[in-house]
């Protein structure tokens, strides 16, 4: 938990966070735009046998091989079906490039640091708190902010 | 102005000079009387001082300055070459290394203590006892000796000629010819040509030399004779005496143009008296040349190749781009054949050739001599041997062998580990060796050699070797295997136990080896590069580790296969052959599928199962089997279809998410842009 509180205070220091908002199941998630490299349509994905279940496979992104991760599987949520809206959010997590499969990408928003709060229990019951930085409140929306560093390295299951 | 770029150059050059200093110091330790080493060191230290002062790294320039002072005293025989002195200088080098490292981080390194030691040393107070076989001769004497070694040029009388060319006997006719040539205003030059050790067609090279020489003048004598040269009845060097009007530089230049020539040393042995002054000059130049030539030979590290420094990242990018180019070429080829576009054939063939050439060039440009890592080892082994109280004779062979930069970067640590093992566990203590009647100094051999498509690196020691029985015991004691299991192992398999994770052969764990990074790490690393490790050992006589490494890593020939609707690449190096079999011929032994093939029992594995593939074509009577080799035994992999051979570019699956995953060497992009995984047979099955 210490980790969560720490990042929570970090965010308060910054006035504005620019976030890419995407949908996964019924929730709305946000990642810092600085970590997002690009957003692409679903290409052909090559399965990697024996890989952890949340690793969907690899794709060819202009000659680079990128590992694609199923976020819902990572969170232990129900896997959603791919639609025309499905996208891959390519993120750079401390030098490691990973693609995140999401249901759809909605918008980029600016969020005040003061609008970021600690993740409520109702969400941490569903998703491992280590993967989250907190929640952003905007009007009546609740945006779950991801801690991508932990999502990449944490081995703990949700 | 961006300083970081200069810093990078500074670091690279400093490291070269430090290497030079290290090498020379090691040489000096072996031959305390040879002051040429101190001279070489002095020059390197001086350059380093200048460079660092320019860059404003004052600590480095201060330290090198003090080192210079001390070395100058050594040159003037005011300070003896002793163990203590050598140790101080080594310490200086280590500190310098740390200082150069710290250039980027801006860390402070304290040199006050070292400066104090240096000052003391200059006052004659060595911290360690002196040894008495120190330098008696001053540099002047050495220089005189060098001068004596060189034939006294410019002599004209026959009596003098006789003394000059001690190794070459001249007949009266030849002396006559020389005299005439000199009278005609020619110079008689004795040209010593040394061929490169790797030279294959020695006779052809020597003939080329002779042809070139005869263009510049008249050949008087050749030793060995021309006939002997043609029959390759000579080692690596030969001498040709000829009359010429060309200058030394032109002669050397002309001969140097021929490839595989290592050294060309011209010596004027007779000259017309009219050019007395010039002759003196030539003599001086010659002396200089001869001196530097011998210095080069000794240190073997001062190489002046015409080259450009290129950041390795650039080369990597270039390599990647070439990869892309090849993928696109394959794609174009596919399109052309799909469209049946004959008009494209010629252009595509050209493109093929060009991309191949570019690929070769890029690969070549990434090749570096293995010396770049080998050169670190003499110092390391020395320090190690010293701290263990052992005497080690390190023999290094094949340091000119070239390897891809990436491969080279990766094998440094494994080699360090193997050498440490050899010194630490392999070589016995001095007393033990004496009792066993072995030479007191242990022998460690590090040798690289070029195989057909790979490089073989051997690390050999003449130490105590490994007892298969002892290794079995250790494996049981550590709970890695049961007694029954180890008893089943052949002696050779028992040796391979050391590659098991958690196995360390050391009875006493020292701070040097046995630090957890065991032989399994070495093996994993080498295999990750597409290489292999083999071990052989005779108890009481020593061990040999053989590392087989690919020359380059990036591109491999693969057999493309399909399993269900997925395509996989199997590196051709693993593939023995492919065969078609009937499902009805499959037998079961202990629940495992096997098939008799050419009188041998071949275990069968279905790739469907291994790769957890969803659908398998049912009721298939005719199966396709790819026979692969793993650790010396053959295994048959059942696949759905063969797509043929293809060159694939390995892209690594370097990702934290996949760090524990085994079975794949990487991925590659196919002609249609899709991604295929490359199977790593060693870890897959």
TrEMBL record, chain A:
Taxonomic superkingdom: Archaea
Alphabetical list of Pfam families matching this protein: CheW
Main location (coarse class): cytoplasm
Domain CheW-like: 16-157
Location of this chain's protein in the cell: Cytoplasm
A GO term from the CC aspect: cytosol
Keyword vocabulary terms for this entry: Chemotaxis, Cytoplasm
InterPro entries in UniProt: CheW, CheW-like_dom_sf, CheW-lke_dom
UniProt-listed GO biological process terms: chemotaxis; signal transduction
Protein name: Chemotaxis protein CheW
Origin species: Methanolobus vulcani
UniProtKB/TrEMBL annotation, chain B:
Reaction(s) this enzyme catalyzes, per UniProt: ATP + protein L-histidine = ADP + protein N-phospho-L-histidine
Domain HPt as annotated: residue spans: 1-103
InterPro entries associated with the record: Bact_Chemotaxis_CheA (IPR051315), CheA-like_dim (IPR004105), CheA-like_homodim_sf (IPR037006), CheA-like_P2_sf (IPR037052), CheA_P2-bd (IPR010808), CheW-like_dom_sf (IPR036061), CheW-lke_dom (IPR002545), CheY-binding_CheA (IPR035891)
UniProt key word Cell membrane: no
Cellular localisation: Cytoplasm
Recorded GO CC terms: cytoplasm
CDD domains, sorted: CheA_reg, HATPase_CheA-like, HPT
GO BP annotations listed: chemotaxis
Residue stretches making up the Histidine kinase domain: 331-553
UniProt modified residues of type Phosphohistidine: 46
A GO molecular-function annotation: ATP binding
Protein name from the UniProt record: Chemotaxis protein CheA
Organism: Methanolobus vulcani
